[in-house]
Amino acid sequence: MRALSDRTANFTDSVIRRMTRIANQYGAVNLSQGFPDFDPPKEITDRLAEIASVGPHQYALTWGAQNFREALARKQEHFFGMKVNPDTEIVVTCGSTEAMMASMMSVTNPGDKVAIFSPFYENYGADTILSGAEPIYIPLVPPEFTFDKVVLEQAFKDGAKALVLCNPSNPCGKVFTYEEMQTIAEIIIKYDAYVITDEVYEHIIYEPHKHVYMATLPGMRERTIICNSLSKTYSVTGWRLGYVMAAPEIIDRVKKVHDFLTVGAAAPLMEAAVVGLEFEDAYYKELQAHYTHMKELFVGGLKELGFTITEPQGAYYVLLDVSEFGVKDDVAFCEWMAEHVGVAAVPGSSFFREDVHHLVRFHFAKKDETLKEALKRLADLRIKANSAQNVVWR
Ligand SMILES: Cc1ncc(COP(=O)(O)O)c(C=O)c1O
User: Fold this and answer.
1) For residue 146, how far is its CA from the centre of ligand 1 (angstroms)?
2) What is the atom index within ligand 1 of the atom nearest the CA of 315?
3) Which of 278, 307, 330 is the last residue of a domain?
4) Does the predicted model carry a pTM greater than 0.85?
């Protein structure tokens, strides 16, 4: 038989989604793959129930139902203070996942270079490979996850055409400051490049941090391709509703890529989600308060247990430092932890380009009882890890 594609030959299955399967196998509390175990807002699910009998059930417009795009434009204008044209500046996609892929394919030619901050959400590496582009990784240096301007600029001197900016960041919880965004913008403009943002956690921010939209910086509107979704903001990760927002010339191209990739997002789900996009500010304040509560419960609990963690500024993940246990292989450690401690996490090495094996990532978008059960089990982690014999992770 002839060989399958070279491009995908080295793909492994997603470590994040594999950890979910391992969690199920051992009955572990699954704090690996980031999805809530609480319900979406009732207004949205009630509307979905109505739509089941009245539709729409057939294809929507390829670039998204008109009322959904209009509601998206109104919401975005409200939060970012700039006009968005729902007809020429938005494409609705199947999650931010497709938004990133369609954007990357619209911006790059095979052989182009794309700068990516490391640690990074694992899909970005695959997106560049599938587009035929070559990633250049820029370290975000722990514990503050700061970047070196000179290193970033070097990537563009070396020909990078675009930067992927995940803000707030998964997995490290970094929220880029206005000054950092300005530094990035200066470089992007100087080298005539683009920024592809992933802003799925825009509303999950912990005081005193603030989300800054790259597109609002001077000169950046026409160079920023915003990828976002409803997954995290409305707790509907399974609905697969995302979008790209950008200047009309870019959107024109993304529309074509999207049309051939997926044809369109689910029509009944778009219709049901419009009520969410129309929520008042109070909804987003409550969301922030709810996540602040979950962070205090879980991250605070880890600190009380005496663990070393990185304090998240946004998103819903925390990195736990497991170097005290002599971990050399964090993948094997996470598998062992799921089986013997009963809590599933994602090995940090799946996010870092650098040689980092001493961090594991938990997510905390969970009900209080789930987080309390995880903390109860993690209270035994130190004793179990220190007394574990003949383990492959050490
Ligand atoms: C940074 C980031 N981007 C994108 C996604 C996936 O988003 P979506 O469900 O909209 O495809 C995730 C999911 O965990 C994520 O953490």
Assistant:
1) 22
2) 16
3) 278
4) yes
